[in-house]
Amino acid sequence: MAEMEGLEFGKSDFVLLDEVTMEEFMENLKLRFEKGRIYTYIGEVVVSMNPYREMDIYGKDTIDAYRGRELYENPPHLFAVSDAAYKAMKRRAKDTCIVISGESGAGKTEASKYIMQYIAAITNPSQRAEVESVKNVLLKSNCVLEAFGNAKTNRNDNSSRFGKYMDINFNFNGDPTGGHINNYLLEKSRVVQQQEGERNFHSFYQLLRGGSNDSFHLQSDPSVYVYTKEGSTSTTSNNDHASHKAVMNALEVIGFSKEEILSIYQILASILHLGNVPFESDGESVQVLDLESVNYISELTATDPDKVIKSLLYRTVATGGGEVIEKGHTEEEACFGRDAFSKALYERLFGWIVGRINNIIEVKDYNPVLHGKNTVIGVLDIYGFEIFDNNSFEQFCINYCNEKLQQLFIELILQQEQNEYNREGIQWQHIDYFDNQIIVDLVEQPHKGIISILDEACLTVGKVTDTMFLDSMDVKLAKHPHYSSRKLSPTDKTMDFQKHFRIRHYAGDVTYSVEGFLDKNRDLLFQDFKRLMYHSSNPVMKEMWPDGQLGITEVTKRPLTAANLFKNSIISLVDKLACKEPYYVRCIKPNELKSPLLFDDARCQHQVAYLGLLENVMVRRAGFAYRQPYARFLQRYKMTCEYTWPNHLMDSDRDAVEAIVKQHGFQNDVAYGHTKLFVRTPRSLFTLEQERAVLIPILVLFLQKVWRGALARMRCRRMRAIHTIMGCYKRYKVKAHFWEVEQRFTNVRNMADYGKSIEWPTPPAALTQFHTITVMLHRRWWARQMVKKIPPSDMLEIRAKVAALTALSGERKDCGLSRAWERDYLANVRDCPQSSSGFARFSRELRNKDEYSQVLFSGFCRKVNRFNKSTDRGVLVTDKCIYKLEPKKQYKVLKRIPLDNLTGLSVTSGVDQMVALHMSSQDDVLLCLQHGELFPDRDRVGELVGTLVDHFTRVKKTSLSVKVCPSTIRLHMRGKPKTVTVETKVGQANADFKKSKDGFVLWVPTN
Ligand SMILES: Nc1ncnc2c1ncn2[C@@H]1O[C@H](COP(=O)(O)OP(=O)(O)O)[C@@H](O)[C@H]1O
Ligand SMILES: [Mg+2]
User: Fold this and answer.
1) 890 CA to centre of ligand 1 in angstroms
2) Which one of 716-725, 799-808, 863-872, 987-996 scores highest in mean pLDDT?
3) Residue with CA closest to ligand 1 atom 8
């Protein structure tokens, strides 16, 4: 946290100074510089000191510490403003710009690079390839632009000799989608001439020292070439050889084609050769001395060597009558023309490179409907205020540009601020600051300003000299408080007559030498060079010179002067910046020696003064860091106060905002304007932001809860409706079933089969049980109808059959149900025609004797006797006893077993006629029934079983267990367990028992 940075490092924000005086300001600045704290805030403005040494404060850890954090959470840093600009852009969809200002060597370009790196590092977390490639081009473009636009000056080894404003475009995601670079006033005079100790643009040295020079006919020693001679010996921190590689690589990465890259270096080589073209005059005409260079130039520029020579020595002019004549140059003109050509070649090359990069990174296929709002962060790195020993046209332009930017700063930071306080009716003590509008007017005012006077001089026909331009200014600007010259203040020996004029810039007095002003402003280039290059057979070069297309008679319009072009570009730059939310980085150079230790008080104080930093602190202190319309403030923070969440019931939004402020105890940190709330310290807002951040997830949960509740209620209502519908439908189905059953069965009494053939309708699920019961009911009723028709005499048989059916059905194959059950077969004439009368007699006697009332069953059978022998016997079952009879001895009773002894029966599931009668005495009777004449091949077992079971249940009221065994019957004889199996045997005439190992086998015949 900024506050946590110990006080031994000084104050991290100048706003916290005890007293706002220059002394305290400088003391703090110095203390922080000495402690290695190069950044300090004035509110949101970063004051940056050039450390002149590597600082370990730009690594990944630092980036992570600043990513997404508020300005005041960390010590002051470039990354913090970069993040603030990025957040403003992302959160509020605001276009923002970061204006970096300061004098040459103060660290602007380095700052802009760190800002770019930071933005590149925090964007595109998902690593999308197209975004990565845009970022790559944006980052790499720096390397190329620096090679061609930077040079070593006496102040800075890597001084930007052009102004740069770079827009980075972002999509709604906050990822960079493209960009655009504007370049301003390249110092092209450097191509042909440098001040003592300075170098030409880096690109020349990089080509000579790092390129493969054979194909360009170059020698690697820069001192061989006039244009690079001055800088050939100067030591610099630049490694030209390595840089060349890096630039080549960057060009490739950005997307320049092989041909394009070659053309770039061909142009550079041509310029170097051009500088070495010497002229000689024999008094009449001028000649090119060294044809070798010319040949190289023609080869490299793909132009005709004769035409190159001609363009260097002659100019085509149109006479008044429309005639075209060739006019030979003087030696001086030839040199001037050559140098102008070199400068123009370089300038157009630079412009073309920028244009090409723009082409590549321009946002393509952008559709706001599809891609959301396209927002922009602009980064301005433009030459700072310059005061040299000899200041010329370039310094004049540069310093004018700085005046314009200072105006913007005043406008945005000082003036707008104060105007707003007035407008909002906030108590406010006006801060005086120097408004440099008057200087801006001095330079750019139409008709009266220096640029106008200069243009006028350039347009005047006839011989006009730089001194005439000075005279003209001395007349027109004599009274201007910011203008002077030796003529106007003759006692001032720091200026020369006929040479110097002085402007009192906001940043200090600068004395300019008028020498070369007219030429530089006219920026004359003979048309012949343009046509020469337009006819180059190298398409890349041709593209750079479209204006060479016009013939000499077609060129009528005078081109705009350099000063005018520059003025226009700066005005459009200021317009571009003015519509964005500005963030400022104010760079200060601690000393002139590039020393990391030296803090030059006077130099620093001078910069602090002209950058208006003290005024900035005062306005900031008196003022308010944040302001927001009440409604917006409320919208953003209303959840932090119980009276305003979710909606307030107060008279106005202002009252509601007051409630929020009071709840948080900020009363003394705010002021209430007519439409906006003003918050003095960012900390208050930051606290609100923090609280908001804590509440948002809770609100999200709350909303989710409410919505989930609503969803659940909706679902519940739907379910209820479904149930109602289902209920109605079920009731309908039930009723429909009733109606259907009723309809189908309504006539059932009168039907022949009493409805047995009626198909029951399928019941709905709810009526399954009901259905089973009704079907049963109907069956019973139907059975009742059936039974009702049976005569009482048949009832006994029916009952026995039902009993047999119940006891055996499903298990025994045949129960003999389809025939009449005669019961007393031994007494039946039809069954036993020979013996029945005898048996009838016998049974009458037995009946009298034993007093039974009913014969349940009688018949012949095979029986196993106590010696395990099988014999023919008669069996008689009455309601009292079971008799074993000897048919051969007039049915003598061999054994009488009371019926009460009978406990159960066992039969097989087959068609055999074997029955085991189980006795309570464990001495069971095993027999196999035999047929008489009646139904000789029908089953009698069923009849015996049915009759006995019926008798037991109906008369004796006890149950008789009947066991149906698949093949083996188990029984006891005289207490011993035996098993009986049934087996078929070929050749067996009648069923008969045979003893087996553990009982008996009943052999039955195959049929
Ligand atoms: N943040 C920094 N850390 C280390 N060195 C710096 C820093 N800023 C500037 N410098 C040094 O100062 C020199 C000049 O900086 P530069 O950004 O080119 O100045 P300007 O663009 O303002 O003219 C750089 O070459 C570098 O050596
Ligand atoms: Mg720079």
Assistant:
1) 147
2) 716-725
3) 107
